[in-house]
Amino acid sequence: MKKICIALDTSPSAEKIATLGYEYAKALKAEVVLVHAVNDAALYAMDYDPIMGYNGFLIQNNIEFVEGLEVEAGKFLEATAKFLGEPDLQTKVLDGEADYEILEFIKEWEADLLVIGTHSHNVLENVLMGNTAVKLVRHSKILLLVVPVKE
């Protein structure tokens, strides 16, 4: 194994997932990338109504808000790299549905192993769509290290 992708969310369990994934990478002398998906960032916009969609046109404040989410995700990944003792560790913020974007990224990056956690942020999301971990397990073409974490 030469390339390991560690997919993180911003939950407290991210520390455990990152640490375990990084320990595997060091033991295998593998290249590592930390990734975080900003899942449908436009849905966080103030003009978004979950039933009807957008109430109006995307205004500048909403665009700046979405860009801010991506910036904060980048800072989160950089802080995680520093926590792991590797401030220059490769990081990547993905924009879109987490499962789809992660699957696309590991294919393009030619990862050999994907490290993920087992939980979701939202019970309703799990019921309606299944959680990201389940989708990744079902559709990944590479090996997975699934780290069990408490919700």
The helix/strand class is alpha/beta
The value of Rg in angstroms is 16 Å
Beginning-to-end CA distance, first to last residue: 30 Å
Secondary structure tally, helices:
5
| Cross-sheet strand order for the largest sheet | 5-2-1-6-7
Strand content: 15-25%
Helix content range: 40-55%
CATH class value: Alpha Beta
Return the domain count: 1
- As for the CATH topology, it is Rossmann fold
| Sheet with most strands | 5 strands, parallel
Total beta strand runs: 7
CATH superfamily: HUPs
Q: What's the rounded overall pLDDT mean?
A: 83
Secondary-structure element order, N to C:
EHEEEHEHEHHE
- Name the shape in a single word: globular
From the coordinates shown, what is the CATH architecture? Answer: 3-Layer(aba) Sandwich
Poorly predicted segments: none
Would you give an account of this structure?
- This protein is of the alpha/beta class.
- It has a single domain, classed as HUPs (Rossmann fold).
- It is 44% helix and 22% strand.
- The strands form two sheets. It has a five-stranded parallel beta sheet with strand order 5-2-1-6-7, sandwiched between helices. A two-stranded antiparallel sheet has the order 3-4.
- One of its GO terms (cellular component) is cytoplasm.
- It comes from Bizionia arctica.
- Its main location: cytoplasm.
Give a short synopsis of this structure.
The chain has five helices and seven strands, in the order βαβββαβαβααβ. It has helices spanning 14-28, 60-83, 98-109, 123-129, 132-139; strands at 3-7, 31-38, 48-49, 53-54, 90-95, 113-117, 143-147.
